[in-house]
Amino acid sequence: MSGKLIIISAPSGAGKSTILKSILKNKDLNLEFSISACNRKPRKGEINGKHYYFISTEEFKQKIANNEFVEWEEVYENNFYGTLHSEVDRILNKNTNVIFDIDVEGGLNIKKLFGDKALAIFIMPPSIEKLRERLEHRNTDNQDEINRRVSKARKEISKSHFFDKIIVNNDLDTAVKKTYNVIKNFIKN
Ligand code: 5GP
Question: Residue 107: CB within 6 Å of ligand 1?
Fold first, then answer.
């Protein structure tokens, strides 16, 4: 196993998924996305085994009991997400680098477990006000949900200093370039 691990974490609305999609297009980085397991229902367009392994709550709990997870979190109430050992092994065994889109707690847990083999990147929104604006523009959440995400974001930002790199997403292209450079530099060592 000689692949490396790249962790991307961010508050909801910071632009993490968009940055991740762009980064995955750079074939020179030799990255493969770690598909997490979760117990929520697929959204429109989401495919089982591509975006997530969509499993039932019972299956999820069984996998916790069997120690099948590298890490797992109840990210939102009754919504469980976790990284399977089998998934990380599947990618690392191909000598490919693994990239994770996971929440802050999960990201820091993976960093703790893998140490220098892992690079933990935090995507920072330019400000809480901007983050709120983005969530409102997205039009996918009601006001209560937006307030919940904003208050979660404050807590997540307070942990950003534990990450190896913080990239402020003020301008998307610049943030993508910075993320690319940081990863490129990390995997060449
Ligand atoms: P969504 O439901 O919007 O796809 O994801 C919700 C949150 O769960 C995102 O912040 C995402 O990064 C996080 N997440 C996805 N997979 C995992 C995982 O395996 N472990 C942890 N801890 N968080 C995850």
Answer: no
CA 123–ligand 1 middle distance (angstroms): 14
Which range of residues forms the domain containing residue 126?
Answer: 5-188
Strand 36-38's sheet: what is its strand order? 52-54, 36-38, 79-84, 69-76
Is the full-model pTM beyond 0.90? yes
Q: Which atom of ligand 1 is nearest to the CA of 51?
A: 4
Task: Find tokens 């690079």 and name the residue.
Answer: 119
Domains contained in the chain, number: 1
What is the C-alpha separation between 15 and 5, in angstroms, rounded? 20
Per-residue pLDDT tens digits for 20-64:
999 999 999 999 999 999 999 998 899 999 999 999 999 999 999
Answer for the pair 12, 169: CB distance below 8 angstroms, yes or no.
no
Within 13 Å of residue 103, how many CA atoms lie on the same side as its CB? 18
CATH number at residue 12: 3.40.50.300
